[in-house]
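Posting this for the archive.
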Amino acid sequence: MVTSSFVSMVSSLVCTFFLSLAFVAGSVANAGIWEKINKVSGAIGLRESANGTVATPSNDEISDGLRQALEVAASKAVEQASSRRGFLKNLDIHIPLPGFLNRPVQLLRKVGMEPQADSIEIAMNKAAEEASSQALPVFTKTIRSMSFEDVQKVWKGGDSAATGYLMAHTRGELYERFVPIVQQAINQVGLVSIYHSFARQPGVEAAINGTRFDLNEYVTNKTLDGLFKLLAQQEKEIRENPAARTTELLKRVFGGH
């Protein structure tokens, strides 16, 4: 019969082994080993309950913990994207001018017309920030309706498995919700008139002729791309960084150390 003291001793020895590996990882600056340690320690269930026995999270805890992790990640991503200059000043999600305008814009900047080009980028990113603020209810509804099978697939998936799930199940709905918001934001900042004025400039008009560019569609899709990129970053942070696990349930499911 295995005693609780024996289990505690084994748990202590294994924990010491992993702590030693962590120390070596720090010495060689190999960040990848941290992920391996976290995954292995989670797999063998190195979590000690109040009575001294080793326990792993139950299926219900895993389901609830993953949903909670997703809600935390979604909330932080939306907050970051919809903040003032959340798109404009974040190089990871900043919405640039369309690629076909790069060359004529460079020419305009050389002749002192930089403000016209900048005003379009500022307006596009402001529209993205406005639209992003409406994403959380859609994310929350989808997360809370996940089946047990969905949760298991995401739990066993990679660093961005949850983001991939949400993208597959919410992007269409978010696009429909964002289109009128982006359109309204575009109208409020006068982006259409700014764009048309810019398009009539020498060199720009020639670049635009023959293109089927939809300003609203472009901004909406770039907004969604940026939002899901932030969501993936937040998901990875919760999976890899213990400090990002801000509740007891997240610590139990993903590891608290």
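The longest helix spans residues 161-188. The chain has a mean pLDDT of 74.
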